[in-house]
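Comment thread on ticket #2218

A.B. wrote:
> Attaching the input chain for the structure job we discussed in standup.
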Amino acid sequence: MENRFTARDFLMMTLSVATIVVVLLVWVNFDRKWDRMVRIDENIARQQEQISRLRTVFETLEHQIEEAVVRIESIEWPEVGTRQVDPNGPIGNGEARNGTGAQTGTGETRVEPSDRGTRPRVTPRQAHSHDRLRRVRRMEGYREGETLTQVMHMTVGKLTPLVATDAYQSEIEGWVIESLADRDPETLEWSPLIAESWDISEDGLVYTFRMRRDVRFSDGSPLTARDVVYTYDLIMNPRIDTPRSRSYYERFESVTALDDFTVEFRLRDYYFLAFQFAAGMGILSEKYYSQFTEEEFNQSRGLLFGSGPYRLAVDPEDWRPGRQRIELVRNDLYWGPRPTFDRVVWREILEDTARSIAFTNRETDVHAPLPREFVRTKDSRSVREIANVFEFDSPTAGYRYIGWNFNDRDGNPGRFNDRRVRQAMTMLINRQEMADRINYGLATVSAGPFHFMGPQANPDIRPWPHDVERARRLLEEAGYTRGRDGILVDAEGRPFRFSLSTASGSPVGEEQALYIRDALAQVGIDMRVDLLEWSTLLSRINERNFDAIMLGWTGGIETDPNQIFHSSQIEDGGSNAISYSNPDLDALIEQARATVDENERMKVWHKVHAILHEDQPYTFLTHPKTAVFINRRVQNVEKLRVGLTPRQEWFIDAGATP
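C.D. wrote:
> Ran it. Output below, let me know if you need it in another format.
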């Protein structure tokens, strides 16, 4: 049978060719559209970069104009013509008289419109927190971009503000959530941030903040006085797990929105840190956080959301701990100057060797090595080639301590309820040897909760000495004797055994714990080292399920020990986890908090220091030194009064190599 090319075959072939042509035309059209989309994306990227550069130029010009105005206003303008002045007249006693006869009591001359011989004196504008960043942007070698990579020594379990408790979370929060004002790291004076200005009543009990109108949260919603009130109400809500924060705001009577951009803080009575906690309160978005119930807020992990220059790289509701890194990205809707870095990353590297390798390989920009490594390598060529080295004491360094639980695991008074026992425990530990041997000299023996460089420290108090014999006598007075197995026993024959709980993953901490164990064993005390993962340790502390803990507290220029040592902070998850109570101390803390005069307040703090020294609710171990390596590509890192330049002001040198 012959194969014939029929009409049907022709039709099928025609349809096939047509289909192929259509497909080719569609493909070509799609390819052209794709090229156009790529070009559009490239144009948008270039425009965004140009906008960013123009924004930087405008901000720089704005700041230069403001500085020029301030300089012009400070010029003594020559007068056209002359005036006679009575040398014995009011000018000599602080008042002034101008050509029209009007007087002021300010020592300045009020200029009437007809008085053309002088220029009115204008009070220079108050420095703004963003002024520092604007100056950084004009530094030689400055550029935006790159990623700042830092390291955490532990796994952060929570990023949600208020209910998170560790120092790493607080550091990360500072990049995302802002406050009404901020402290200048050099002068330590308060500078406007979200607030434009503020008034303080003569009795110091009312603070009125006038807020900027252009501040936006990272979703574009406006930040108003209602958000400030909402944040305060959230802190004071007893159903929110934030007893630590609540203890600082208990003296506030109310926080009120006078209008959309004016908020008033009113105190019941004077509190020396009230302005700090009003101006420095991280402001939360009512729109965002009110969608969660109290229980959801308490149980949440990553609800970190704010108006700051950065935001979480993932949806806050999707963030979970244990991902080995926490990443922030630039907030493109930020109301202030563009921040220096595109991204800020914290890598969770728990092993010290791995942290060192990562820094040496230039995978991280900041490295706080173990004391041994720091001392041995800080002057080496391999370190100096890639890093700048910083080593210094700071009054904000905080302290490391052992907290003795006054109660046993059943909540009854325990062995550490006896002051003689606590004093003996302190004197059995050679803290100077620990500072020299384990910390390689990068720590100073502590005499209490107040740093020796700060004004709160009582200059007459010296650390308890290492005195084993005196410690033995105190233990004998408390009723302890040697048992047959060499372990101390109390009057009822119960052996002196306990566990010291501390965080795992820190070789220095573990070495210190073992050193303390061996020191106590010499007199017959059987101590077990209980190394716990960070979140487990925090749970034990909140449940009061420990014998003794070894941890650290951060510090400040002037701190409030109420949170840690006042008896009111024992219950409801407060920071007085050891259940220490001394009515005399409580009264002094309350007196100091209400004392306006700084010199008088310091005298009261010195009495507080003396009681804590005598009672030894903690064995105050050491104040650490700052010892850190920072990659040389990171610029604008300098030692200031209380630490290094804020990391938000660092940048990557335009000529640096990775």
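A.B. wrote:
> Thanks. Noting for the ticket: The longest helix spans residues 7-73.
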